[in-house]
Design brief:
It is built from 12 helices and 23 strands. The chain has 398 residues and is of the alpha/beta class. The chain has 2 domains: 6-244, Ribonuclease Z/Hydroxyacylglutathione hydrolase-like (Metallo-beta-lactamase, Chain A), CATH 3.60.15.10; 252-396, Rossmann fold. It binds MU-OXO-diiron (FEO).
Length: 398
């Protein structure tokens, strides 16, 4: 039986945990699940802020029923139209036929496109307010964090920000939703992976959003995924600021593919050279074992990157090609970079990976190593020395 616990007077968390879904957006692994957060404000008027994935509508409605006990919902505030939050809107309208949907013009277009909803919608613009009785909600547009229609809702009695996906993370809310009641250690890597994969392309819009929000006193951030941030507000805002500036820590990611072990040997040699030259944070990822979302999360974290793979049908090895596309799509800036490649009869990988430096406007460190067939002692040494050159650039990086 759900026991309602308000996060402020008459404001309730009514989100749900998804422990079943394997792949978020059908491509990002969810080893720790994900929460779809929704919030209910009970005042002279009742407002629900966002819904949940349609597969969990009955969980959401059960929580709302336990709080409202037959009372109707007056407003549904739509901060974000992606179906992990908007998916239950149609069912909600059937359950509460008089609910008025509060949305901006871009969301109204999507409401029509997804659900054929054109009536009983209240359009709001930047800075508009909605009076619920004791509480007033103000709406601020946050385009491209990470969809064009995204807005946030600010409650100005208790200074609560309902932030849509911003400051969200993968990982369920286990036993509670408030950060000060949880051990939040488990969220930080997953929050960076969420940011890298979903928001990472949109550094400038995130910076614009942070500037806009900096004028508001905020006591709680209620995102659509992960815990409600109260104790950790400064940390999560600081992380978003760093990531959206593409700021990094000192360290080296080596992401490689290898079919028969030769290219892996080159990766090991690069790592040995980097460690010998004083870099402590060296992370090696085999792209055939580690999903690229985890690798991208580490590439967002560290300032050094070395990619390596065999030539495959005259191209890059397919999983490295996928990773390279992920890097390019996110416009990752300002990295110290080099690469290596291997082949049996005609080399292409090293040349193609070298070209990535120019595409991304990254500094290419040293001379990329290209190896034919078995790894000779000379090629091993070249990789080792490349690791050393990377280390020097990484710790002189600014
Ligand atoms: Fe969690 Fe962009 O939806």
């Amino acid at each position: 039986m759900y026991t309602p616990r308000p996060l402020a007077e008459n404001i309730f968390y009514v989100g749900v945990n998804d422990r079943q879904k394997e792949l978020f957006e059908n491509y990002l692994p969810l080893p720790f699940g994900v929460a779809y957060n929704s919030y209910l404000i009970v005042d002279e008027k009742v407002a629900l802020i966002d819904t949940v994935d349609v597969n969990f509508a009955h969980n959401l409605f059960g929580k709302i029923d336990a709080i409202l006990n037959g009372r109707q919902i007056d407003y549904l505030i739509v901060n974000h139209m992606e179906p992990d939050h908007a998916g239950s809107i149609d069912l909600l309208r059937h359950k509460y036929p008089n609910v008025q949907i509060v949305a901006n013009a871009k969301s109204m277009d999507m409401l029509n496109g997804y659900f054929g909803i054109t009536s009983n919608v209240l359009e709001v613009k930047e800075g508009d307010c909605l009076n619920l009785g004791k509480r007033i909600l103000t709406f601020f547009m946050m385009p491209m964090v990470h969809w064009p229609e995204v807005m946030v809702t600010y409650e100005n009695t208790d200074n609560i920000l309902f932030s849509a996906d911003a400051f969200g993370t993968f990982g369920t809310n286990d036993g509670d939703y408030l950060d000060e009641h949880l051990n939040t250690d488990k969220y930080w890597d997953e929050m960076r992976r969420y940011y890298a994969c979903i928001v990472g392309k949109f550094g400038v819009p995130v910076q614009n959003a942070l500037k806009k929000l900096s004028a508001l006193p905020i006591s709680m951030i209620c995102s659509t995924h992960g815990p409600v941030w109260k104790k950790e507000i400064a940390k999560v805002v600081g992380l978003y600021d760093r990531w959206s500036r593409y700021e990094t820590e000192e360290g080296l990611v080596i992401a490689y593919a290898s079919m028969y072990g030769h290219t892996q040997l080159m990766a090991e040699a690069v790592a040995e050279g980097a460690i010998a030259d004083g870099i402590k944070n060296v992370v090696i990822h085999n792209v055939s074992k580690t999903d690229s979302s985890f690798i991208l999360a580490d590439i967002f974290k560290y300032n050094g990157l070395v990619l390596g793979c065999p030539t495959y049908m005259g191209e890059l090895y397919p999983l490295i090609e996928k990773l390279v596309a992920g890097i390019q799509h996110r416009g990752i800036k300002n990295r110290v970079y080099s690469c290596f490649g291997s082949f049996t009869w005609a080399g292409a990988a090293a040349k193609k990976l070298t070209a990535l430096a120019e595409t991304m406007k990254w500094e290419l460190v040293g001379t990329p190593v290209e190896n034919k067939q078995n790894v000779s002692a000379e090629k091993y040494r070249e990789c080792y020395e490349l690791g050393g050159e990377m280390a020097k650039k990484i710790y002189n990086f600014c």
